[in-house]
Amino acid sequence: MNKRIVSALCLAFILVSCGGENKRHEEARTVKTIITKDYTTERTTPFPGKVVAAEEAKLAFRIAGPIAKIHAHPGKAVRKGELLASLEARDYEIQLAATEAEYKRIKAEADRIIELHKQKSVSDNDYDKAIYGLQQITAKLNAHRNALADTRLVAPFDGYIQEPLFKAGETVGAGMPVLVITGAGTPEVEINIPASEYLEREHFGSFTCTVNVFPDRVFPLELISIDPMANLNQLYRMRLRFKRDSNGELPTVGMSAMVNIGYCHEDNRGEIIPATALWEKDGKTYVWIVEGKDNCSVHAQEVIVVEMLREGHSVCHGIGRDKQIVVAGVHALKEGDKVRLLEEKTATNVGGLL
């Protein structure tokens, strides 16, 4: 009798336990989902940049000597051809005066020999010497005239002067930068992009930038160039200019900017999804598609990964647009599992605590 009672109790306990397991198995799992979008949809990627001058030049004298005067002060607006700095010209003036006197003497002698050669009174050898001598002193005279002219440093274009690199009285060598001038034209923006974005350059569609000191404005840009060779940091330099139809005041040189590049693919390359939505089984790649509205369940859908993008996203074929897929906890699900969708946080529910 006791054995029968014990057996009945054990059987009842097993049935209750199995019922509890089935109940727990039927409980819906809470999952995070997204709605898929075509990769043809334009996306934007931000890059930090800096506003730079369209033209900038480090100006140097072509000859050496002590600086006589700096005529342009920092921040001064100058016109093309305006005198910016000058060297002490005394030595070059003396050199030119001596060369001019020598030139007059040799030219007078050459003119006499040329006239005599016409009269067959001097040999062809003397004539050739006179011609070559005149050519040599003419070249020397032009060189010394240029040297004197090179004691003056003039603006190569309209612009603004930055802080001089030398002061009056200091001696500079030929080719040493003395002044820096920035162009007065429309400024440009310079950014650096990684190799992954450089390979996508054929799909660049639009360019805009924002600047902190102009919080309510978005400036349209147009592409000028992309360097075909990476720098030491494996980044490619891009230069963009502000469009001429930009209204109002433009950012000035030196300001920081955030450039947004819009990408647009003409062909449908698939759907863009987070890489966390992918899982593998038997060498194939799948995603969980959520089916139903009130009583949701998941269904495994095989996909083909076309491309891995930056920031943990992938382009896949085989899903379709506007499909709801699971993007977190995919390895804990099985075919046909019941799921409950995680509600999105609202602006008034900071941290998702409510």
From TrEMBL:
InterPro entries, per the entry: BSH_CzcB-like, RND_pump_MFP
GO cellular component: efflux pump complex
GO molecular function: efflux transmembrane transporter activity
Coiled coil: 89-116
Alphabetical keyword list: Coiled coil
Domain CzcB-like barrel-sandwich hybrid per the UniProt entry, residue ranges: 57-181
Database matches in NCBIfam families: RND_mfp (TIGR01730)
Family the entry assigns: Belongs to the membrane fusion protein (MFP) (TC 8.A.1) family.
Descriptive protein name: RND family efflux transporter MFP subunit
